[in-house]
Amino acid sequence: MSVPTFSAIPDHLAIIMDGNGRWANARGLPRTMGHRKGVEAVRETVRAAGDVGIKYLTLFAFSSENWRRPETEVSDLLGLLKAFIRRDLAELHRQNVRIRVIGDRYNLRSDILPLLIEAEETTKDNTALTLIIAFNYGSRDEITRAFVSLAKDVEAGRLRPQDIRPELIDARLDTAGIPDPDLIIRTSGEERLSNFLLWQAAYSEFMFMPEYWPDFSRDLFFSALEKYAARDRRFGGLSAKQAAAVGS
């Protein structure tokens, strides 16, 4: 299958995979069918990201707020996650994909946590795409945990408050060692971050797509990358063209 070339691609792409339930409702299907179809979109997206050379792909798989959903839906979502790891881990490992999991691990169910740890340990030395699974993740919770960690160091005399810098906060977040996302995509037409990577998204590009996640195809993925390549990222300064004009 041919892979297009782009003038620029994001080193780190993050995706809010939204719309599984609405996809199913629009077709008169149970919501669980939307989640199952969404897993197929995950597989295709991971393959496409690897094909174009993206280094980091973060998928918002299960938020810390998702526990509020009906118990049957939560059970199905967790079952799909377990099935994905059991079925796809070996293939991802063969593809040299490294898996990393972010989110609060405290009090996670005993049938989930070992699988997440296994996925990380099995693939920790891989050097191609890093697939970051945001599970039981909420950005405000993540930032709170980071500041609690810093506060403990201050209390113990290991750190002075005036020495706290953004880089030090970065190092206490779940994403420590991972570059901030260059592009964040959200499907289903919703236009909000929903407590996802709030600190890390300071200079991210955003793309809100009307398609539901189960319909997120390889072609849509490449279309999003093409639009990203056309954007002019300035990070608060001047673009290369503007800087050249000023210097001329």
Q: Say which CATH homologous superfamily is assigned.
A: Decaprenyl diphosphate synthase-like
The best one-word shape is globular
Round the mean pLDDT to the nearest integer and report it: 92
Kindly state the number of beta strands: 6
In summary, what is this structure?
Catalyzes the condensation of isopentenyl diphosphate (IPP) with allylic pyrophosphates generating different type of terpenoids. This protein has 248 residues and is α/β, with parallel strands linked by helices.
What does this molecule look like?
- With 248 residues, the chain is α/β, with parallel strands linked by helices.
- The protein has a single domain (12-138, 182-230), classed as Decaprenyl diphosphate synthase-like (Undecaprenyl pyrophosphate synthetase, 3-Layer(aba) Sandwich), CATH 3.40.1180.
- It has helices at 20-26, 31-52, 71-94, 113-123, 139-155, 166-172, 218-229, 240-247; strands spanning 12-16, 56-63, 98-102, 130-137, 183-186, 205-208.
- Strands 3-4-2-1-5-6 form a six-stranded parallel β-sheet, with helices on both faces.
- Helix 4 links the parallel strand 3 (98-102) and strand 4 (130-137).
- Helix 3 (71-94) packs parallel to helix 4 (113-123).
- The longest helix is centred in the first third of the chain and has 24 residues, at 71-94.
- 29% of the residues are buried.
- The model has no long low-confidence stretch (mean pLDDT 92).
Task: Spell out the key features of this protein.
single chain; magnesium; 248 residues; 8 helices; alpha/beta; Undecaprenyl pyrophosphate synthetase; ditrans,polycis-undecaprenyl-diphosphate synthase [(2E,6E)-farnesyl-diphosphate specific] activity; Isoprenyl transferase; metal-binding; UPP_synth-like_CS
